Amino acid sequence: MADEIEIKEIDFRYAPEITAIHRAIMKGNISDSWMQSIELHLRKQDVVGYVAIKDGQVTGYIIGEIKGPSFGLEKSGWIIALESHPNYMGSGIGKALVESIFKYFKQKGVKDIYTALRWDAVDMVSFFISAGFNRSDFINLEKHLDDAVPE
Ligand SMILES: CC(C)(COP(=O)(O)OP(=O)(O)OC[C@H]1O[C@@H](n2cnc3c(N)ncnc32)[C@H](O)[C@@H]1OP(=O)(O)O)[C@@H](O)C(=O)NCCC(=O)NCCS
């Protein structure tokens, strides 16, 4: 099935199709800020990404970037977003997209690739494990700023 998937470099002109995929996953519940942030990402110079085309339509996308030196690493590849359309999940789109970005990172001399997931996104965790990811040496810390913080 994977041979029916065409991979193209991402472009901000794909924003409507990408938004449609996210809307289908979120069952219509998407915010304006999500749409603004995706457009912003797609217009950035240092962002890498691909879309998957199947049956003549955009059925998935991946966005990543190279950071460094940062987090104590000289150079690292980050996967910021990855989604495939619910009608096409399980048909090799996610795999084709990560393989494309792995190839890009490798060409750029990146050896270590990271992503961050919600702990309860079990489908994403399973997918990334099947793509060869493991628990990293990092931990995430969080602090919520509220009204109690003096200005
Ligand atoms: C996770 C996701 C990107 C995977 O994409 P996909 O196109 O369905 O994945 P593929 O068909 O390429 O599957 C590749 C591998 O991952 C595994 N996999 C994919 N989804 C899985 C799941 N839910 N559970 C277990 N394994 C899974 C497949 O079994 C396959 O393994 P194999 O290569 O050994 O056969 C996609 O399902 C998705 O977009 N999910 C929704 C994400 C989401 O909720 N986003 C909102 C966050 S804001």
UniProtKB/TrEMBL annotation:
Keywords: Transferase. Pfam families: Acetyltransf_1. CDD domains: NAT_SF (cd04301). The keyword Transferase applies. InterPro entries: Acyl_CoA_acyltransferase, GNAT_dom. Transmembrane segments: none annotated. It comes from the Bacteria. Residues 5-151 form the N-acetyltransferase domain. Coiled coil: none annotated. One of its GO terms (molecular function) is acyltransferase activity, transferring groups other than amino-acyl groups. This is Acetyltransferase (GNAT) family protein. It comes from Syntrophus gentianae. The lineage of its organism: Bacteria, Pseudomonadati, Thermodesulfobacteriota, Syntrophia, Syntrophales.
